[in-house]
Amino acid sequence: MTLDKRIEQVKPRRCDLFAEKYRKIEILGKGNFGQVFLAEEVATQKKVAIKVVDTKRFKNEDQKMHAENEKQVCKLFQKKIKHKHIVDVLDIAVFDKSIYFVLEYVNGGELYERIKQQGKISEPQAKRWFRELIEAVAHIHENGIVHRDLKPENVLVDKSGKIRLCDFGFGKIFEPNKLLDTYCGSPFYAAPEMVTSTPYRGPPVDMWSCGVILYAMLTGQLPFHCDTMPELFVKINLARYTEPSALSNQVLHLIKSLLCRNPKRRITAEGVLNHPWLNDQATNHQIKKMIRIPSAMSTTFKGHGYYKTKIRSSSYPTTFNIMSSSSSPTSTLPSPVISVGDEELASYSTPSSDQQKASKATRFLLNAISKKSQVAPSREKTRDSSRKGKD
What we know:
Helix content is 36%, strand content 13%. With 391 residues, the protein is an alpha+beta fold. It has a 6-stranded mixed sheet with strand order 1-5-6-4-3-2. A two-stranded antiparallel ribbon has the order 7-10. β3 and β4 (47-54) form a beta hairpin. It is globular, with a radius of gyration of 21 Å. The two termini are 20 Å apart. ATP binds at residue 51. Belongs to the protein kinase superfamily. Residues 369-391 are annotated as: Disordered.
């Protein structure tokens, strides 16, 4: 019996948690399909975070599928695969067609806020936090789970200064030999496979996002940032970013290994944990030999002040299928279409797939600039329903 089928047989118990066990304190966040509450367990007065997803608000089967994915992932965290750098799942319950996720309350703030407040994170501190994040990511990958929405907003720093990974709303239990085709997460942290609507393996997508997080931690900037989403997607697809001259050769090599266009060559979580930057194992001569920076990439760093302007609360969308508020990154957003006929993108598409990829990219962008916040995102359907590895 497969792991997925065993999980499906474990039916969540039915109860009104807020009537029987917990007392609401305040609302921490809202979405189209539910809310997140700070609550207190009546018996112990222990504070918890409770995410409530109202399935009655779902409009299609795809949204139900995402909620089921999150429920299955959280069951694994509750029963089996706990980790010191992942927020604990304490309980899962269903009542009146709502799913209750009872989570450990981490009262320390987001990594996002730390970067915003400090401008950037010092290299020694970033090294410690990044190792903790990768330890968490390696753990979920080893247990067949992919996050698909790794970003500083989903990384918490607890009171003791330790990293805690959270929010598996886009999480998925994957099989190593099957491809996924749900395109989700934040555009700024998305891998080339995501922005080109290419079926993908889960772990490499997470590792790309980790590369963007590391870059953001050390510079206070984003490696890929443009005035429009089409321009952003072109830059991501080409892995075109500027390497900051102030960073050490070791960390530049690690970032380059993470932000690798080819997912088959992209470094794994295990590879990151063994990288010299996290272990101080290589000499400067070895690192200079290991990293060969093209002259076009070794220019002086000139980035956009992402963490000084807080795009998350601005008009930029924070996820492909989850929106903040406004509908466009500028007052006059160009037509949201990526032209696959452009010289930059044409070499990555076969003539038979150009039209299909352009159509997918168009729908992809339209989703990014038109949908409002939601707890369970909708799914971008594929054209070929018979293709193997369906997500």
